[in-house]
Write a structure and sequence with these properties.
Chain B: It is a multi-pass membrane protein. Chain B: It holds the Pfam family BPD_transp_1. Chain B: Belongs to the binding-protein-dependent transport system permease family. Chain B: It comes from Gordoniibacillus kamchatkensis. The complex is a heterodimer of chains A (275) and B (294). Chain A has a domain of 171 residues: Orthogonal Bundle (MetI-like fold). In chain A, 80% of the residues lie in helices and 0% in strands. Chain A is globular. Chain B is mainly alpha-helical and 294 residues long. Chain B has a single domain, classed as MetI-like (MetI-like fold), CATH 1.10.3720. The chains are: A mainly alpha (275), B mainly alpha (294).
Chain lengths: 275, 294
């Protein structure tokens, strides 16, 4: 009986290994080929590189302005997420704690708006904001992310704040703290688990987003990482070695983030789905 | 619950907590959406200061456009294939990595990895695989299936899109199913095991019925995501060959920004919105009924 069980376990383990290799193989391929010259890639895309030269990397790094792109992406992602967390938590707190008739309607509107596809907004978006001249601004882009990310974050905070007992706040209010202070000093720290979940989900979304920034950031220096990868790859499609190096470079930052935060990422995605 | 007595206090609270987020919500979602719907009934090009009402002309033009129907049908086919495959594979992966197999956390991390990376980059990686690596394999091994690039043939380019989509999202849905599986009380399965229920019976009779909420969420997400796919479509096939693999999101984009037909492009976007919203409502209703029954 025990023997049968261990045999089954080994079988499952082998199956998982095979699947993992299948899932990871595309990444292995681009890393392998990023060290090769164009001719070597064409001759045999599956072979090991003959020597480890970083020429492709230094070339790609410069041409795609990797440094600038990473800084742009970081700025947009961090600023947007801070805005989303600050304003959604406050709005959700307001919707839960003040019993205005309109509050349920606001929440309902936000839930309905979550279903609107970006394609239904992008044409008016470009014409309105193009006219207002806010294109090419990272700050405008972050404000747009606030608008797009707000509904889901508010909805998640709303569910969480409903479970926060009012007594905790009353003690602080009796001590004379303002509503604003009560929220930030007493309530907000309690929201940490859901804040982490929202931050993780929004990092995965904003860091990788392409369509919105491609419409807003038309200037070369303003490009985020997905944009600069896109333009680089478009130009150097046939220079396979460099193109692969560019892809590897653009993947590195988020993988580093993943390795550092793996537990939070996995938990964030699971929690985010349940709510 | 808090209530303020004076109007001034009420205004202060509103401005403090709700003004900025509601302004962002209005200016980024509500107003563009309202303008977008208005655009479909006019000949506005998005820049001119005056426009005329055109009734349903834009919608009629959209429905008469053969390319639109082609793209819509192509998208529906894509959605059906990728939703089914993604969920079946994700559920199987979830069962595999919660069966107590050695190193299951590492496997979970591994299967989730493609989700971390943007669709643009994933599409480029697979473009290389389909047009270089597999063609090389096809030539070396004299394997006809891969002799020519899949991306150059419409029917195979379709499957290329599905494969990339499934590879990308199955890890995400796997996590949702794992969350569902861990929510099942172990005592229930133990009791069933003692009563002589096989693993297969436990799966069909206990696990799947109790996981209806996880299926609801996962189906909802995969449906929405696959209807909206743009990034991988752009970097993998660019809609080609000959616009044959243009998913609806790309079709709307091209109509508006490539061919400068804002009115009919926006009408198509509104049609897309209506379809997605209908599917969402119907699906959530149907699943809620299932949940109640089990």
């Amino acid at each position: 009986m025990r023997r049968k069980k261990s045999l089954k376990q080994t079988g499952l383990f082998a199956l998982a290994c095979i699947l993992a290799v299948v899932y990871m193989f595309p990444f292995v391929l681009i890393v392998l080929n990023s060290f090769k010259s164009r001719l070597n890639v064409v001759a045999n895309p599956l072979g090991l590189p003959k020597s480890f030269s970083f020429d492709n990397y230094s070339g790609a790094f410069k041409t795609m302005s990797f440094g600038t792109a990473v800084v742009n992406s970081l700025t947009v992602t961090v600023v947007s997420i801070v805005l989303i967390i600050v304003f959604s938590s406050m709005l959700a707190y307001f919707l839960v704690r003040w019993n205005w008739k309109i509050n349920n309607f606001i929440l309902l509107m936000m839930v309905c708006a979550m279903i609107i596809p970006f394609q239904a907004l992008m044409i008016p978006f470009v014409s309105i904001y193009g006219k207002l001249g806010v294109l090419n601004s990272k700050w405008a882009l972050s404000y747009f992310y606030l608008g797009f990310g707000l509904s889901m974050a508010t909805f998640m905070y709303h569910g969480f704040i409903k479970g926060v007992p009012l007594e905790l706040e009353e003690a602080a209010r009796i001590d004379g703290a303002s509503k604003y202070r009560v929220f930030w000093k007493v309530v907000f720290p309690l929201l940490m688990p859901i804040t982490t979940t929202i931050a993780i989900l929004d990092v995965l979304w904003i860091w990788n987003d392409f369509l919105l920034p491609s419409l807003i950031l038309t200037d070369k220096d303003a490009r985020t990482l997905p944009l600069s990868t896109f333009y680089f790859f478009g130009q150097y499609t046939s220079d396979y070695g460099s193109a692969m190096a560019a892809l590897v470079l653009s993947i590195v930052p988020i993988i580093v983030f993943y390795l550092l935060m793996q537990k939070h990422v996995i938990k964030g995605v699971m929690d985010g789905a349940v709510k | 619950m808090y209530t303020e007595k004076k109007l001034a206090e009420n205004i202060k609270v509103f401005v403090m907590f709700a003004f900025v987020p509601l302004l962002a919500f209005l200016t980024v979602k509500v107003i563009p959406f309202a303008i977008g719907v208005t655009m479909t009934f006019t000949d506005w090009n998005g820049v001119a200061s005056s426009f005329q009402f055109k009734g349903f002309e834009n919608y009629i033009a959209a429905f008469r456009d053969a390319e639109f129907w082609h793209s819509m049908l192509f998208t529906v086919r894509y959605v059906v294939c990728s939703v089914v495959l993604t969920n079946v594979i994700a559920f199987a992966l979830a069962l595999l990595v919660s069966s107590g197999v050695k190193g299951q956390n590492a496997f979970r991390l591994g299967f989730f990895t493609p989700n971390l990376i943007g669709g643009i980059i994933l599409g480029f990686i697979w473009q290389f695989i389909f047009s270089r690596v597999l063609v090389y394999v096809g030539k070396e091994a004299a394997w006809d299936l891969f002799a020519n690039s899949w991306l150059a043939q419409p029917d195979k380019a379709f499957w290329a899109l599905v494969i990339v989509g499934v590879w990308q999202t199955s890890g995400y849905m796997m996590l949702i199913y794992i969350a569902g599986l861990t929510g099942i009380p172990g005592s229930l399965l133990e009791a069933a095991g003692l009563d002589g229920a096989s693993k297969w019976q436990q799966l069909i009779r206990i696990k799947i019925p109790l996981m209806v909420p996880a299926f609801t969420i996962s189906l909802f997400l995969t449906l929405q995501k696959s209807f909206m796919v743009y990034d991988t479509n752009l970097s993998l096939t660019q809609g080609g060959p000959y616009r044959s693999t243009e998913l609806i999101a790309m079709h709307v984009y091209n109509e508006a920004f490539l061919y400068q037909r804002y009115g009919s492009g926006q009408a198509k976007a509104v049609i897309l919105f209506i379809i997605v919203a209908l599917i969402a409502v119907i699906q959530v209703r149907a699943m809620k009924r299932l949940e109640v029954r089990s």
